[in-house]
Design a protein that fits this description.
Two copies of one chain form a homodimer. By secondary structure, chain A is mostly helical. Chain A has a domain of 138 residues: Tetracycline Repressor, domain 2, CATH 1.10.357. Chain A is built from eight helices and no strands. The radius of gyration of chain A is 20 Å and the shape is elongated. The model of chain A has no long low-confidence stretch (mean pLDDT 93). At the A-B interface, helix 1, helix 6, helix 7 and helix 8 of A face helix 1, helix 6, helix 7 and helix 8 of B. The structure holds a DNA duplex (30 and 30 nucleotides).
DNA sequence: GTATTTTTGTACCAATTCGCAATAAATTCA
DNA sequence: TGAATTTATTGCGAATTGGTACAAAAATAC
């Protein structure tokens, strides 16, 4: 027996697809320069429908970014936490990351948060909080992963977890910035590999 | 004998001061969200006057950013190149940098380029080129400084100049991003000190 | 004093922007 | 079948945006 839908005219949009299309627009232009008309075209939804479905422009961004984060976090966490070897985990994580940053168009679009809302973060408190939260999440993940490696004996007991995590976060911020500036994927990959190797060297990682 | 001015009504604005005020507005809001009205108020110049003096909104940004870069490059180069000891040079350079990133308002505004135009870089080719050029200039400076340190015997002859420079550039990108997200100066300083120390350790720097 | 030049200031323009009101369309329920 | 509900659509409004035309103001030159 097919499930009966609720009353009312059926939706012509798919929430996930619409949010995905919206985020691509935001990534193409940056937050402010993406208009409701851009979003309307991309989602094939009229502006009032966008408002009814998702709320204001800012709400649309926040929901789209959250969906993207939710979709990609598993991919990234698998790379970071499922591999017992720290060097391999980091290489895999950053390879995944630069692939994400290079997705979407014929030229890289960078990070859906760092590359899209950085300009607006100071003047708009909600956007600023979103940027700060994104940075904090990344920091927390790297701290967690470095702590796990130290506890597994792959790093010295005296390892300064925060300092090493800061280096890895810096690499992530840099890759996003470079992707946004047009750096090609192979170059991003080279930078990631070299920097991971140097960071591990500095941290005193045990050879595998 | 006082110098006679040219014909015409005397200017009521100072070019340097106007461009400085304009850049502060751009740093406060990001590029697109800064309107001609914002710039007009900040510079105390009417919009037609802004056009006559500096050109379009984009021209204003580019000129203001160039003036800022010109003013701060000496400060930064002095820190980086005048100090023979690489660790001291880098510490001094990044201390200068985070001070710059924290200047301007009661909360840090980050980098006048990386923190302001990143969102617009993909859709506007001129802005994109400006972002890419800023990244390239930073890369070139770090490469030059690391090569000088290797040639002075402070780093091993086999040092991978590019890889080390990439790490330092990553730190700079990260500090800009963190400043923009509201990170306080003491925290930026801590991250910079720790990251410089780890980078030098990875590079095999000689103890002073 | 008039002409020329440069700058300032007012007024205006066309287009865009975000957001809303009202209505029509498409479904289910009673 | 009509009512209720949800969604889509058209039209609109107020405000903003980047930019321009033109006249007035303020100086020098003759």
């Amino acid at each position: 027996m097919t499930e009966k839908s609720a009353r009312g005219r059926p939706r012509q949009y798919d929430v996930r697809a619409a949010l995905g299309a919206a985020l691509l627009e935001f990534r193409r232009r940056g937050y402010t320069a993406t208009s409701l008309d851009h979003l309307s075209e991309a989602t094939k939804m009229a502006r009032p429908s966008l408002y009814a479905a998702f709320g204001s422009k800012r709400d649309i961004y926040l929901r789209a970014a959250a969906q993207f984060a939710g979709d990609s976090v598993e991919r990234r966490d698998r790379a970071l936490f499922d591999e017992p070897s720290l060097p391999k985990a980091l290489d895999s994580y950053f390879a995944t990351l630069v692939a994400i940053y290079s997705e979407g168009d014929e030229r890289p679009l960078g990070c859906p948060v760092l590359s899209v809302i950085t300009g607006e973060a100071t003047a708009d408190p909600v956007i600023g909080a979103e940027l700060a939260a994104a940075l904090s999440r990344t920091d927390a993940r790297f701290c967690q992963r470095i702590a796990a490696a130290r506890d597994a004996g792959q790093l010295p007991p005296s390892t300064d977890i925060d300092a090493v995590a800061d280096m890895l976060a810096a690499l992530q911020h840099s890759l996003a910035q470079r992707a946004r500036a047009g750096t090609a994927l192979p170059e991003l990959e080279r930078i990631a590999r070299n920097s991971v190797a140097l960071t591990l060297k500095a941290a005193g990682a045990r050879e595998p």
